[in-house]
Amino acid sequence: xxxxxxxxxxxxxxxxxxxxxxxxxxxxxxxxxxxxxxxxxxxxxxxxxxxxxxxxxxxxxxxxxxxxxxxxxxxxxxxxxxxxxxxxxxxxxxxxxxxxxxxxxxxxxxxxxxxxxxxxxxxxxxxxxxxxxxxxxxxxxxxxxxxxxxxxxxxxxxxxxxxxxxxxxxxxxxxxxxxxxxxxxxxxxxxxxxxxxxxxxxxxxxxxxxxxxxxxxxxxxxxxxxxxxxxxxxxxxxxxxxxxxxxxxxxxxxxxxxxxxxxxxxxxxxxxxxxxxxxxxxxxxxxxxxxxxxxxxxxxxxxxxx
Length: 306
Known about the structure:
The chain is of the alpha/beta class. The protein has 2 domains: 7-247, 3-Layer(aba) Sandwich (Rossmann fold), CATH 3.40.50.720; 252-305, no CATH class. It has helices at 16-27, 39-49, 63-74, 104-129, 159-179, 197-200, 216-219, 221-231, 273-278; strands at residues 7-11, 31-36, 53-57, 80-85, 96-97, 100-101, 141-146, 184-191, 238-243, 252-253, 264-265, 293-295, 303-305. A 7-stranded parallel β-sheet has the order 3-2-1-4-7-8-9, with helices on both faces. A two-stranded antiparallel ribbon has the order 5-6. It has a two-stranded antiparallel ribbon with strand order 10-11. Strand 1 (7-11), helix 1 and strand 2 form a beta-alpha-beta unit. The longest helix is centred in the middle third of the chain and has 26 residues, at 104-129. The two termini are 36 Å apart.
């Protein structure tokens, strides 16, 4: 799929993974519609990118809102060929909590935004894409949904979020098989942990300890380059790719194991084994999705091995 000259929609494109996707698509020559409900962040990003981007306030749970956004992206001389669904919310709540049972309304809200919202965007975008003229490979468009590693390895308190993302995984193959007849590919990614606005919305006690606190331009753009080059440019009709923060170097250390419990992240030369050993720091490296066991060697860096 040729990105340059195509129109694209990125739901949840005002921040986090969505914003990194918007910037990547715009830099590759696409005309991007930022579909989000964060007016301040969305407008600022559109102003930053100039004529390559426009912000549209979009509630993915409202089919009329989504239809308006799709129509805006599809009209004009640039055909709608790319959709990336990044809109999502998360709640941290136990099924049998200390203060009562899981709130059914909150559970339903997560499903409506993460699963039903993605399906609504997929359905209406596919309707617009099927009228495109096919390219040399017979393609009319590509739709990328965002699942999560939580779909495969959900944790305590993630019942609603994991269920919604597992739904995305289950949606991918049947949608890809059906829409392949129209030259539309359907892909999904299962990201690991990134330090985004969604993660920041969780209570501190619920936030995963393995989070990589990389600024978005370090932690998200590089993985999105890989994702978009593989998924948008590929001829594969369907795929499920796992994308984790471990694609970018991430190092935590304790300046003093006795007194300073504040975790600080260092990049570049400060994350090297030599630097950490010289300063008697602990080095922690983890890859999302695998078990880790600590190994101590006296005063040498404390390493995590997968």
